[in-house]
Amino acid sequence: MSDEVSVEATGETVGEAKWAALRELERLAPGIDREEVRFQVVSEGERGLLGVGYAPARVLASVDPATPRGAAFVDQAAELMRGAGYTALDGAPPAETGHGAVGAPYAHVTAPLRRLADRYATEVCLSLFDNRDVPEWVRVALPQLPDVMGRSGRQASAAERGAIDLAEAVLMANRVGEEFDATVLDVDGRSRPEGKDRPERPPTGTVALDEPPVRGRCEGRLRLGERVRVRLVKADPARRTVLFEAMP
To answer: What are phi and psi of 209, to 5 degrees?
Structure first.
C-alpha cells in the first residue's frame, strides 16, 4: 500500500483543530469515512493573557492505508499530488513558487544525485556557498531543464509502470478464473453508451488484491473504498494487462 496521508491543522481549541483537519481531509476526498480518520494532538495550545502568549492548538489527522477506505483515499490523494513541474530561474525568482502538495514555496536539491536537475542545482549551490560565479555551462543549461525533466519523468514513469504491469500479468497468467478479495481504489463513474458498430462498455474501476499484491482494472459497478470479491478474466503478458470482474 501507499504511505500514510496526513494533514495538520490549528484552532483555538483541540476540538476546533480536529474539525479543521477533518474538513481538509474531506476537501481532498469528499465522502471519506470519518471513522477511518485518526487524530494526534501535537499541541494543546496556550490561551495566553489578553492575547499575550497565545498559541493555537495543533492536531495531526491521518488516514491508515491498511484499511479499505484508507487505501482508496491515499490512492486518490496521491493522484492529486502528481504532475510536478520545474521552473528555471537566473536572477529574479519566478512569479509562481508554490508547491501544491506542500502548500508553500518549495525548492530542493537531492544528494546524492537522483535527477538530472540535481547535477546543475548542486553546482549552483556550491557556487553560492563559495561566493563565486555560477559556471557558464550551468547557466546555459538551466532554461532547457524543465522540458528535459518533464520528458524524462514521463519516460521513467512509463517504464516503471510497464515493468510492474508485465510482472503482474506474468504472475496472474495461470490464475484466470480464480476469485480474490480486493479493495476498490478508483472508479471511472460512467459507462460508454452503445453505438453503431460499438458495443456498450460496462463501468470500470481499479482494484487492489489483498493477495497477491496486484492492481488492475475491474469491470462492474463499484464504490470507492469498498471491499469486493472479484474474478480474474484476463491476464495477458504480451499486452501487459490484467482484467477482473466484480462478483455479484
So the answer is: -70, 150
Distance CA 85, CA 88 (A): 10
Q: Report helix, strand or coil for 219.
A: strand
Q: Return the C-alpha cell found at 34.
A: 470519518
69-84 pLDDT, tens per residue?
666 666 666 666 556 6
Confidence band for 246, pLDDT divided at 50, 70 and 90:
very high
- Cα(48)–Cα(141) distance, rounded to whole angstroms? 53
Distances in Å between the Cα of 190 and the Cα atoms of 38, 51, 72, 228 are 32, 53, 18, 19
Q: Which three cell numbers stand for residue 101?
A: 502538495
- Residue 73 is given by DSSP the state H
**Prediction pTM value:** 0.57
Task: Output phi, psi for 108, to 5 deg.
Answer: -155, 160
Q: How far apart are CA 17 and CA 13, in angstroms?
A: 6
Side chain identity, residue 74 = V
**Euclidean distance between CA atoms 203 and 191, whole angstroms:** 4
- For residue 68, what pLDDT band results from cuts at 50, 70 and 90? low
Ordered domains of the chain (ranges, CATH): 5-80 (no CATH), 107-166 (no CATH), 173-246 (2.40.50.140)
* CA distance readout (Å), 162 to 118, 149, 154, 167, 238: 26, 20, 12, 9, 11
- Structural Rg of the chain based on CA atoms: 24
Q: How far is CA 70 from CA 33, 77, 127, 184, in A?
A: 8, 10, 45, 11
Angle, alpha carbons 197-165-147 (nearest 5°): 90
